[in-house]
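Hi Y.,

Following your request, here is the sequence exactly as I used it, all 213 residues.
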Amino acid sequence: MTIKYVQITKITADEARAYRDLKFTIKCKNTGHPHTYNLNNKCELGSKKIISLFSWAMYKNRHSQGHFTRISVIEKFQKFLQFASLHDITSPSDLDGTVLINFCLWLKNESGLKYSTAGSLFRSISSIFKQWQKHKSISPTFIIPENMFPKSSGLSSSNEGYDMEEIREISTAVQQSLVITSKRLESTYKPQWLGKEPPITQGLITLFDQRQK
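Below is the corresponding structure, written out as tokens. Let me know if you'd prefer a different format.
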């Protein structure tokens, strides 16, 4: 019970530190490597109180996202900071039931983004808004609107294919890998037991010699 209490206390302290200092260190869920994120440079883009909430939410999502996803979310969240600055949203008390609806409308009509891109951006950073709903300073009227970008995912343009130079590089890499694998598979396997013949092999040889005598 004491250990569990200490762990919960530490997590709470780490979350508070992320909120206060705008920086935190998290292990990537995919590689296990630790990465440090410092959001202090985002203060020039918007309110520190809003960025504090963002930092706290990013830390709360520490087990559900990998490093590259976090980098993408940090970059995309800048659009919300831009919207918040234009609409005088500077503190948690300003986050009411109309904020995200107006944010979606702004993304569609005033952000300069294509419709499909705007929809993708909103879905990408919705994990932040879901955490905000759990923060004690956020009004219970703060909601995430549904289906604000209908069919936006189907309107995304398909990815461009590889050019000829990229195809050559991929082909070369595959051929080299096949050569290495082929050599490894074709080599004769010789079992060793701490540098000596395996005991079972030596035992069979001894038994054979005895029968020959």
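The beta strands are 23-27, 34-38.

Thanks again,
Q.
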